[in-house]
Each structure stands twice: as C-alpha cells, then as structure tokens.
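Translate sequence into structure tokens.
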Amino acid sequence: MDFVEISRSVFEQEIAALAKVSAQIGNEMKALVELIYKSPGKVVVTGIGKTGLIGRKIAATLASTGTPAVFMNATEAVHGDLGMLSPEDIVLAISNSGSSLEIINLLPSIRKIGARIVAMTGRPDSVLGKEADLILNIAVDSEACPLGLAPTTSTTACLVMGDALCICLMQRRGFSSEQYALFHPGGVLGRRLLTRVEDLMSREIPSVMETDLFKDVIYTVSDRRKGMTMVVNNQGHMTGIITDGDIRRAVQGYDDIINKTAGDFMTRGFKKISARAQIEDALRMMTQNKITSLAVTENEQSESIVGLITIHDIIDCEK
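Result follows.
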C-alpha cells in the first residue's frame, strides 16, 4: 500500500468537502453572530462522541476569544447538567445526522427552559434541524474513512465551521490582542502582551565616555554583563551604544584597535523603545533590526534614556 498517496487523498477529499461546506454558508451565519453578540447569556455547546470532542474545542475557543461559552455533554445533560442552562443562553447542538437520540431527548427541556437552539448538522431536514432556530449546514458527501463509517470529513467540517463562527464573533466584538492576553495569562504570548518593557528593563545603565579607550569599553561591557554599554559625551548626553557586535566589527576593522576610543566605533543611531511599550513590541523591534538590546525612554515623546532591555531579559521572563 502507498500510504503517502492514501494520506494525500484524505487531504484532497477533506479540502474538497470544506470548499463545498464553505459555499453553503449564507445569511444564517450573520444572523447567528448577531444573536450571540446581543445575547446576555452564554453559548452552551452540546454533542456526543466525536462531535462532542469537536464541541469541546469550539466552546474553549469561544470562551478564549471573548464569548462566554461552556461545553455540556449531551448524555450527562439528561442527568442534571441541564441545570447549567438559563433562558438567556444559546444552545449550539452538534449532530451530523441530526438524529442523535441523546441530543433529541434534550430539546423539549431546552425549549421549556427558554434557551435558543442552534443546530450544527449535515441534515437540515432532521429532527434537530426542524427544531432549531438557526442551522449551520455542515453536510458533506462522504467520509474520508474507506468504510464510510468513522467520522472524518464530517468532523473536520464541524471543526472549521466552529472556527469560522469564533472568528466572526471576534471581529464583531473587536476583540483585541490585549483582551486575548488577559484570557491567556499563563501562555508565552499572554505574558508578552501583558508585560511592559518597564517591568523587565534594567535601570542600571552601563556607560563609557566617547574618549574612553577600547580596553575600558571591554572592561565595562564584561563587568556589567549586559553585552553592551551606552556612550556619553562630555556634556553628559548619551550619543551612542556599543554592543558585542560593534566590538567584533571594530576588532576586524581596525589594526590599531587598542588605540581606538568608544566614539570611533560606537553606533550613533541606536534604537529606542518606550518604557510603556509591550514586550512583544520590543521583541519585534529586536528581530527586525537584528539586535539584542534596546535603550528605553520614559515615554514615546521623551529622548531621555531611563533603562535598558535585552533579549535575555525577555527570554528569562518566558521561562
């Protein structure tokens, strides 16, 4: 058997199926986004089996992107978990066949509670489809499974439809990276977005005079263990920066390096960043300019240097 070709055929079949599902999306998505956006309640996603697993992911993505949502196992729901529902809630019921008994058994109680019902199904004319207020059609022609039995293409369609709903709601809410970080404080991205440059920068700024010799620069850079030093003129103004890279280039470029002063090989147009900037901004600036340290100003309008931040400060924060 050629498992490479089999794998590619699965991709091709599922991609083709997704294109068909995409073409089926209509005004019901717009109506659903508005319904959820204006709802004072939460989204309760329910399902069983493989679609239940996809439902858990959809609920988690909704919750992490600004839409209050929980997952309710359809089997557990009939044994008391329906108590999590309130009249303001919207139930997103997932069943490819639209006839899963566990979900069908929930519908009368959901109606009595007063929650709205949205069906994500491949059979709009099913019992679930007929009972729903809105339908997201995830119908596919066949499963990628050679037996046509294991949920494969249908669950992929369900997953992507859920992602589409989440992204639409993010756009509708104007969900920002700062809000995302607030909901993800334990992740690297969350820490980056919540942490400001001033939280990590060092206020001890190593410095040398423009007239200091090469050996004095080496001593300062090594002694302060920052891999760099600022350069100050005789008026006390910081006019440049010297990094490890500047030192290496100076050694390679000058035969009489021992007689050179800091002013001869410093970088004058050094990069600065505001103390209030996010760590993500600092990291982006370092990456784009291929540098490992930044001078820090009090704010965007100020030219006064109040600290330094290095790539190592950021890395240590993310450990």
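Note: The chain has a mean pLDDT of 89.
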